[in-house]
Design goal:
The complex is a heterodimer of chains A (about 375) and B (about 260).
Chain A lengths: L9 H4 L4 H21 L2 H26 L7 H17 L4 H23 L4 H21 L1 H4 L5 E2 L3 E3 L2 E3 L5 H23 L2 H11 L1 H6 L4 H27 L1 E2 L6 H14 L4 H29 L9 H16 L3 H15 L22
Helix pairs in contact in A: 3-8, 3-11, 3-12, 3-13, 4-5, 4-6, 4-11, 5-11, 8-11, 9-11, 12-13
Chain B lengths: L3 E10 L2 E11 L4 E5 L6 H8 L7 E6 L2 E2 L8 H4 L1 E3 L12 H8 L8 H6 L2 H20 L15 H14 L4 E5 L7 H16 L4 E5 L3 H7 L2 E6 L2 E6 L1 H6 L1 H8 L6
Parallel strand pairs in B: 3-8, 3-9, 6-7, 7-8
Antiparallel strand pairs in B: 1-2, 1-4, 4-5, 9-10
Classes of the chains: A mainly alpha (about 375), B alpha/beta (about 260).
């Protein structure tokens, strides 16, 4: 059982709560850095995919998890990021400026779109963002000079610091690139969350009316959050393009938007951990099913391969279970396990029973 | 000079005139209370002052500045803080976080500085913490500092909401039914805190309240409203004795 005594305000302001907390993340970081030696090429590729989807999930988490505005259109911003990056690189830009341009383009387009779109809320907002995702599929076909039309574009190799980085030729280098981008974005994200902007996002999520009364410019907070969210997702899109090596309109279908939303819901809305947990599930669940299928085929002689759509069904089941039993997602599970360990043996059964909520002012949102 | 001047304030929702030509002034350092039956328009007046509603006529002047055309999010920065009738706290955050959001109108950092967490941001965070701790001390909330709102009892939430309003360093605090749903002891504490806010912090308090014992104890002046119109003004005792006020609450005597 641990108890932390705070003696300075900085204890609350710092990113890490003391040495043990810092050590945990240092160990995680060390494991991630050592991954190319620990894992084979195939699993390193999968881990890279987890990193890229974590980044995309972080983007969506900012607007949906922390600002409370559902978006079913974030694949559109992955597309904008991916096509911007590839188009600029094919026109002779270096990778890093092109990557930055992906973020900026997605962010600016997000900011422009957010003003009309974020006037809506709830189901209407979901439909409007869904429309965004559908529109981008057509735009990706029409804007042929940039997107390569139906055929799409191939990702050129990345030249960085005198190294040639290619997903297949040098998977370790590409892995480190994704890791570096993800770590930087996560740190920026956490910095925002522990300062005034992040608090204003939470305020908008929990009660717009009192946010406004406390001096939060609600429209501006939503725009900032949406724009930053799009920028992060754009970065993820650019990295995804290099991971997939080729992208066309089919790479960013509505289904990707929905998967992203499911990812943050399964992971746990409103927690940074959730984006990572969700990405692990989204990327590794199909692999797990494939392994299970092989096992059943060989060992038990049951031909599961004869039943298509297993991934989708399992995914759907997982979502249902999550929504019913653990609305805070995998993060909620992790949080409970951690609390149980910290308090052992004093954990009480009713500790996380959902408390009743009190009536909110209904006439004002 | 009066701190708050409300002149001929009116608003109608559809055909209903919720507030109809209400005028009053609040002097610096006083506790001014609005009373009246349910649906009299007291909370609507609050929402008009904090600019959540757009008045159809009239003027609101705060500290010499006309705030009638100001957007709602600029009001807090001028020094008007408020609480809500049905508590509007940020349920998924801790008490400390809620109070820090109360400091939003005093923020002096931009988002890109926060993204990098420059030394300036850390200094500003420490400063915010220092001022929030003073409020925590004042309202005796230290035991709840790191607790989530979702797990707090109702009475404590009421106090946290006042603490959040105080965190913004207001000149005028609007309390919408501070004692509703509180036990006798909690109402007693609330009365002390309102007196402390007035005497120790030098705040001006504008309050809506039904509990007449609390109103009589803390208010300097009371305005009774009914059906959107002002009925009577004076001390708590004077207003309670006013025949028009009695009529509004109880109806007229049967006439033969």
């Amino acid at each position: 059982m641990s108890n932390r005594f705070k003696s300075r305000y900085d204890d609350d302001i710092n990113l890490f709560e003391g040495r043990w907390h810092l050590a945990q993340y240092a160990i995680l970081m060390a494991l991630l850095v050592a991954a190319p030696w620990l894992l084979g090429t195939y699993y390193l590729g999968e881990l890279t995919a987890v990193l890229v989807w974590s980044l995309a999930g972080l983007g969506l988490m900012l607007i949906s998890g922390h600002t409370g505005q559902v978006s079913l259109g974030h694949a559109a911003f992955m597309a904008i990021g991916a096509f911007t990056n590839l188009a600029l690189m094919l026109r002779g830009w270096h990778f890093l400026p092109a990557l930055l341009a992906s973020a900026v383009t997605s962010g600016v387009i997000g900011a422009i779109i957010s003003r009309p779109i974020l006037r809506m809320s709830g189901i209407y907002l979901a439909i409007a963002t869904l429309a965004l995702s559908i529109i981008i599929e057509d735009v990706a076909i029409i804007a042929e000079p940039i997107t390569g039309g139906v055929a799409g574009v191939f990702a050129p190799p990345i030249a960085l610091f005198g190294m040639e980085i290619d997903r297949y030729a040098t998977p370790e280098a590409f892995y480190y690139l994704c890791l570096a981008v993800l770590v930087l974005v996560t740190l920026g994200y956490l910095n925002l969350l522990r300062s005034a902007s992040g608090r204003s996002f939470l305020a908008v999520r929990d009660s717009e009316v009192s946010a406004r009364a406390l001096g939060v410019n609600v429209a501006r907070a939503k725009t900032l959050s949406f724009s930053l969210s799009c920028a992060i997702t754009g970065l993820a899109g650019a990295l995804y393009a290099h991971l997939a090596q080729a992208v066309n309109y089919e790479s960013f279908l509505v289904l990707i938007s929905i998967t992203l939303l499911l990812q943050v819901v399964i992971g746990g809305l409103g927690s940074v951990h959730g984006a990572f947990f969700g990405a692990i599930v989204v990327v590794l669940l199909p692999q797990l099913i494939a392994i299970a299928r092989d096992f059943f085929d060989n060992a038990a002689g049951i031909k599961i391969a004869a039943y298509p759509g297993m991934d989708t069904a399992l995914f759907a089941l997982l979502i249902l279970l999550m929504v019913i039993y653990e609305p805070r997602g995998l993060y909620g599970v992790w949080f409970k396990v951690r609390t149980w360990l910290q308090l052992f043996p004093l954990y009480r059964k009713g500790m996380f029973r959902r408390t009743r909520t009190y009536l909110k002012t209904e006439r004002q949102r | 000079m009066s701190l708050l001047q409300v002149k001929d304030l009116s608003i109608s929702f559809g055909g209903v005139k919720a507030v109809d030509g209400v005028s009053f002034t609040v002097e610096p350092g006083e506790v001014f209370t609005l009373v009246g039956p349910n649906g009299a328009g007291k909370s609507t007046i609050f929402n008009l002052i904090s600019r959540l509603y757009e008045p159809s006529a009239g003027q609101i002047v705060f500290d010499g500045q006309d705030i009638t055309g100001l957007p709602a999010h600029k009001v807090a920065g001028l020094g008007i803080a408020r609480t809500f009738q049905n508590i509007e706290l940020f349920d998924h955050s801790s008490v400390l976080q809620n109070l820090l959001i109360g400091r939003h109108c005093r923020r002096n950092t931009r988002w890109f500085e926060e993204l990098l967490f420059l030394p300036k941001v850390r200094r500003s965070e420490r400063q915010h913490r220092l001022l929030v701790e003073e409020v925590i001390d004042f309202l005796d909330l230290a035991a709840y500092r790191d607790k989530l709102i979702a797990g707090l009892p109702y009475g404590v939430r009421k106090v946290v909401e006042i603490a959040r309003a105080l965190s913004s360093e207001p000149k005028l605090i609007l309390l919408d039914e501070p004692a509703s749903g509180l036990s006798v002891e909690e109402t007693q504490n609330m009365a002390w805190w309102i007196e402390d806010m007035q005497k120790d912090l030098g705040l001006t308090v504008l309050m809506v309240e039904h509990d007449m014992s609390l109103v009589s104890r803390v208010s300097n002046r009371v305005l009774a409203v009914s059906e959107g119109r002002p009925l009577a003004m004076g001390t708590a005792a004077e207003v309670q004795a006013d025949p028009k006020v009695i009529e509004a609450y109880l109806g007229t005597e049967a006439t033969s």
